[in-house]
Structures are given as C-alpha cells and as structure tokens.
C-alpha cells in the first residue's frame, strides 16, 4: 500500500466517525492552536489521536488532498496565566 492509499483509508475511517466523538486534547495550548487553525486557515480538522503533549490531526481539505499533521506542545509558545 502506498502512503497516499494509507492516508486515503485513514481519511475515510475518520470521516465516518461522529465529530463529537473526536478525542479532545487535554493540553489547552494544543486545543487553542487547533481552534486557531480552524478559524484562521479555514481548515477542516479532525483530531485522530490526542496525547498529553501532542495531537494527531487529519486535515480534510488540504490543497493536495487530505493529510495528517502533528500539533505538538514543543512547537507552541508557552503562555503564562
């Protein structure tokens, strides 16, 4: 199976799920970054897997078709409350 075929399979599986069942990132910075990408970029994002320090996200409306992206806490600026 090619990478494109694997990604298309993942996209089909994720698209069949109810969005309300998507895992919610426990890290507020990751959740905020995903919300920013949805709002600013107009991206259709589905969280595939959420971990304490990262989230794997399916971008459904990418320019070259769907793709997977990792939003990691390591790459986000730290905010102080």
What level of helicity do the residues show?
A: 25-40%
Oligomer: single chain
Number of domains: 1
Total beta-strand segments: 3
Describe this structure in words.
- The chain is of the alpha+beta class.
- The chain has one domain.
- It has 2 helices and 3 strands.
- The chain has a 3-stranded antiparallel beta sheet.
- Strand 1 (45-51) and strand 2 (54-59) form a beta hairpin.
- The chain is globular.
Topology, pairings included?
Elements lengths: L2 H14 L11 H14 L3 E7 L2 E6 L7 E6 L9
Antiparallel strand pairs: 1-2, 2-3
Quick structural overview:
This protein has two helices and three strands. By secondary structure, the protein is α+β, with helices and mostly antiparallel strands.
Features:
alpha+beta, 3-stranded antiparallel β-sheet, globular
């Amino acid at each position: 199976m090619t990478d494109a075929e694997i990604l298309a399979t993942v996209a089909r599986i994720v698209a069949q799920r109810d969005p309300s069942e998507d895992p919610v990132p426990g890290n507020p910075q990751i959740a905020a970054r995903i919300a920013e990408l949805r709002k600013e970029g107009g991206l259709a994002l589905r969280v595939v897997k959420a971990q304490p320090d990262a989230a794997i996200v399916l971008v459904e409306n990418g320019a070259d078709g769907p793709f997977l992206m990792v939003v990691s806490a390591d790459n986000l600026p730290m905010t102080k409350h």
